[in-house]
Amino acid sequence: MSGANWQKILSPVLGIVVVGVLWEVWVWYMQWPTYKMAAPSDIGPAFWRFKELFLQYGWQTLWRTVVGLLVAVAVGTFLGMIMGLSRLMRDALYPLLVGFNAVPKATVVPVVALVFVGQHDFNTILIAFMISFFPIAVSVAIGLSTLEPEYRDILRSLGASRFTIFWKIALPKTLPEFFGALKVAVTLAFIGTNLMEIVEPHGKGLGHLFESGRINSDYPLMFAVLIALALLGILLYYVVVVLERIFAGWAERNPT
Amino acid sequence: MTNLIELKNVKHAYQTPAGPLPVLDGLDIAVPESSFCAVVGPSGCGKSTLTRLIAGLMFPDEGEVWLHGDLVRAPRATVGMAFQNPVLLEWRSILRNVILPLEIVAPRMPEKKRVARAEQLLALVGLEGFEDKRPSELSGGMRQRASLCRAIVHRPEVLILDEPFGALDAFTREDLWQTMHDLRVEEPFTTLLITHDLRESVYLADQVVVLSGRPAATQYVLDVDMPVPRPIDSLYEPAAVEMLATLRHQIQIAQGRAPAQEATQ
Ligand SMILES: Nc1ncnc2c1ncn2[C@@H]1O[C@H](COP(=O)(O)OP(=O)(O)O)[C@@H](O)[C@H]1O
Ligand SMILES: [Mg+2]
Predict the structure, then answer these.
(1) pTM of the shown model
(2) How far is the CA of B93 from the centre of ligand 2 (A)?
(3) A254 at the B interface (CB within 8 A)?
(4) Over the stretch B167-191, which tens digit does the pLDDT of each residue have?
(5) Tens of pLDDT along B225-257?
(6) B3 - beta bridge partners?
(7) Which domains does chain A possess?
(8) What are the φ and ψ backbone dihedral angles of B23, each rounded to 5 degrees?
(9) Residue B175 to residue A116: CA distance in whole angstroms
(10) Residues of B with CB below 8 A from A148's CB?
């Protein structure tokens, strides 16, 4: 491994360690009890005590977030394509989408929980999807509608079909923006999943674990859940980064 | 010799929110097979519109556009285009960029033949060894060379160039003029070049058409009577200097008719 690669791994690890130490020292210095602020040294044991639950609930949170994201990618890309390729549809759909996106999802959660009562997986996926599809739709729409006419004309002048032009030019050209939006969507989808998990009773997932920590005044557990969520978020984010490297690596500036 | 490109009394207007904008009004152009026609005219007079009509990307309100004896009713694979912006695809290597039209026009052509064809053209324009580079790794002039290769890789009958050298510096531009002559010797296309450089038009073309200001009509046609390929020095011969003077005068007339259009592009 080259020096640059070591640096890539070492610097974030160092960052985490430094923040952890500062946090520990700070809590110790302020003499805070755990119900006010847990220190990293309290969180480790909390993880250990509930390790099976963390694995089980963590998995539930993860798969529902991923499914919500996949639906968001499918629907967002579809909406983005419609809006990006048709001026009429853009004018018709854009205000609707903006309005929909402006509604705080915390207010939608109880409504959804009521409408589809008992369907916990479905509700969670639905909220994860609802909160995360917007950036994808917008980025795809902008990517397609800002395609310079010359790009289309080089193929259109040869008699290429609309689909060919989309497949060979418009889609690849939009990929960098798409992945930029997907990174935002990953984080949003997590927020959506947890909103639902925390609010709806008989819950599953890390959100539920957080809620039970709150009810039992187990503050180290609550903090441990937050850390677990952060770890899952980082994991998914880097999965997207790897996909971006593979499919849109050409858009990266060469470091020369 | 037959006319490969022929425009007869072409009229066209764009529909804008402020009402119809007449752009072309009585355009006549005839380009004989395997000859080179340059079109000059004031900015915004409708030159790019003209290229889109020939390529079948748009159709005129009135008049007729003929290509090789057929009325143009749709885009066709016998046309190649290059623009001021080279519009190379950054996710493809230079070689794959050049091959792109073959994927559309000749989907069944064996991969080996495609690569060989693209490599041959890239070598012809001096891009040997750059096949695997990304477009952003090339200079502006080199990108424009690659764009030219892409425009002719499928052996089109007609090559339409819309100010392809307009954004290049003077020296690079003269190099590319030379390349155009080299390509013409090797490949049998008929060319229509839009340009705002009168020297370029005289150096490259067999025929220079001057358009009037918007709405554009054919104002003047100059036959360039010099053998091809031409050394760059031929631009300083008395005959060429006289042609340049004539063209400059014609452009001034074209602009004089619509002085306010100078700034629009
Ligand atoms: N799609 C369009 N809709 C409305 N007006 C247009 C459109 N395309 C070009 N125009 C206008 O038509 C005129 C001629 O355009 P163009 O053919 O691009 O000129 P040129 O290439 O000679 O500079 C310009 O005034 C331009 O603003
Ligand atoms: Mg133009």
Answers:
(1) 0.81
(2) 28
(3) yes
(4) 898 888 998 999 998 888 888 899 9
(5) 888 778 888 889 899 999 999 999 999 888 875
(6) B32
(7) 63-248 (1.10.3720.10)
(8) -115, -45
(9) 70
(10) 85, 87
